[in-house]
From TrEMBL:
Species per Swiss-Prot/TrEMBL record: Cajanus cajan (Pigeon pea)
Domain of life where this protein originates: Eukaryota
Name of protein: starch synthase
Family: Belongs to the glycosyltransferase 1 family. Bacterial/plant glycogen synthase subfamily.
Lineage: Eukaryota, Viridiplantae, Streptophyta, Embryophyta, Tracheophyta
Localization per record: Plastid, Amyloplast; Plastid, Chloroplast
Length: 460
């Protein structure tokens, strides 16, 4: 690896439908931005092609300007360019209104809209004589890139391009994914454990020889308690106790919770079956019963689930008004304050391809309590159970884990965490310091991606 990877700058083009912070729905958006930045920092060239949604958060795009237009698919496509987190982004705006619908997902014709976008993006590369080394596509929404490229563009001057396809969540659009797996040169998913968990899936199994699990990282500049405008006091691991105390007080004040030194459990999540909703609810009750405070920030794409949580919020807020808040919305600034102000962040997922929440939590010195599945298993090592496994990977134990997706499982991890907080505070504070110092950035995984890019390129 080493030598070649460092010497030859490559040109990588991501074709994606999410990108943090301007069009982020979940972890996919974070990964597109932070992986690109890490690869760019290793002296490679990266461009991103994204739909120009009407709901883009343009205040985070620098030097935004009209670039050119072209015609394809029976419509004019306007192309805009700008910089997002320092990355070059081309925005495609087809004049057929496909991306003027007020949202990223959630239209009846998402597959048609994104299929159109994928083909339009390849056409843009073709018409403008881009010669990238790698085209990287993501999940079902840009999976069509893999086969459209091989069917329509491989024999043009784009013939030297390697295609890499990353599965962020197999749950979505598995039937698209199987076809992309057939056509792509290399495929990845976002953690080694998840890659094993899905290896028997009929979309994956025939292609296992080109399928790799690479853990996601987080961008340490985007998630940085020393430089975060949403928290009251900057802190590094040395001042984790002071920094988190100030953040907890600010959080309590902002949400109208009792200002007191109590164990505070945070949950930041999409509210879907995958994320273990019944386990979150149980953990809320258990934490309240043990005298703690709880802040949940989450929103449900499914209106039944959202209503269910609204009812739960009403009930809990009247029973324990100064100890629990359910904030049922998407709120990035508030998420920063919770990551900093919580003692624990709970991620009780039924399955979890990688999970970024636990990684961000650790960066802010919040102790993760997670179910041992997928990427959660690869990144959280139980303080009692996983010492050897942690050491084998160069880490110290960093959290509390449980195995079974039931209330007993949650209790097992949560009770130990809360007891430690009450009875062994120095040890607990030291754990916060240790986890803050762990490196869950892209430093390691970006090198794995580069190795894979080189391998994909060789196949062409
Ligand atoms: P997924 O992609 O399955 O939703 P991840 O753990 O990979 O889960 O990524 C979730 C990301 O979305 C994290 O950056 C988390 O902080 C953020 N997030 C989730 N829900 C909310 C919310 N309601 N408000 C703000 N940020 C949220």
């Amino acid at each position: 690896l080493g030598g070649t990877v460092k010497e030859m700058p490559m040109h990588i083009v991501h074709i994606a439908v999410e990108m943090a912070p301007i069009a982020k729905v979940g972890g996919l958006g974070d990964v597109v931005t932070s992986l690109s930045r890490a690869v760019r920092d290793l002296n490679h060239n990266v461009d991103i092609i994204l739909p120009k949604y009407d709901c883009l958060n343009l205040s985070n795009v620098k030097d935004f300007h009209y670039h050119k237009n072209y015609f394809w698919g029976g419509t004019e496509i306007k192309v805009w360019h700008g910089k997002v987190e320092g990355l070059s982004v081309f925005f495609l705006e087809p004049q057929n209104g496909f991306f003027h619908v007020g949202c990223v997902y959630g239209c009846g014709n998402d597959a048609e809209r994104f299929g159109f976008f994928c083909h339009a993006a390849l056409e843009f590369l073709h018409q403008n004589e881009f010669h990238p080394d790698i085209i990287h596509c993501h999940d079902w929404s840009s999976a069509p890139v893999a086969w459209l490229f091989k069917e329509h563009y491989k024999h043009h001057h784009l013939s030297k391009v390697g295609v890499v396809f990353t599965i962020h969540n197999l749950e979505f659009g598995a039937h698209f994914i199987g076809k992309a797996m057939t056509y792509t040169d290399k495929a990845t998913t976002v953690s080694p454990t998840y890659s094993k968990e899905v290896s028997g899936n009929p979309a994956i199994a025939p292609h296992i020889h080109k399928f790799h699990g690479i853990i996601n990282g987080i961008d340490p500049d985007i998630w940085d308690p020393y430089n975060d405008k949403f928290i009251p006091v900057s802190y590094t691991s040395k001042y984790v106790v002071e920094g988190k105390k100030a953040a907890k007080e600010a959080l309590q004040k902002r949400l109208g919770l009792k200002k007191a030194d109590l164990p505070l459990l945070g949950v930041i999540s999409r509210l879907t079956h995958q994320k273990g909703i019944h386990l979150m609810k149980h953990a809320i009750y258990r934490t309240l019963e043990r005298g703690g405070q709880v802040v949940l920030l989450g929103s449900a794409p499914d209106s039944c689930i959202q209503n269910d949580f609204v009812n739960l919020a009403n009930q809990l807020h009247s029973q324990h008004h100064d100890r629990v808040r359910l904030c049922l919305m998407y709120d990035e600034p508030l998420s920063h304050l919770i990551y900093a102000g919580a003692d624990f962040i709970l991620v009780p997922s039924i399955f979890e391809p990688c999970g970024l929440t636990q990684l961000i939590a650790m960066r802010y010195g919040s102790v993760p309590i997670v179910r041992k599945t997928g990427g959660l298993c690869d990144t959280v090592f139980d303080v009692e159970r996983d010492r050897d496994r942690a050491h084998a990977q160069g880490f110290e134990p960093n959290g509390f884990t449980f195995d079974e997706a039931d209330v007993k499982g949650v209790d097992y991890a949560l009770n130990r965490a809360i007891v430690t907080w009450y009875e062994n505070r120095d040890w607990f504070n030291n754990l916060c310091k240790t986890i803050m110092e762990q490196d869950w950035s892209w430093n390691r995984p970006a090198l794995d991606y580069l190795e894979l890019y080189h391998a994909a390129r060789k196949l062409t």
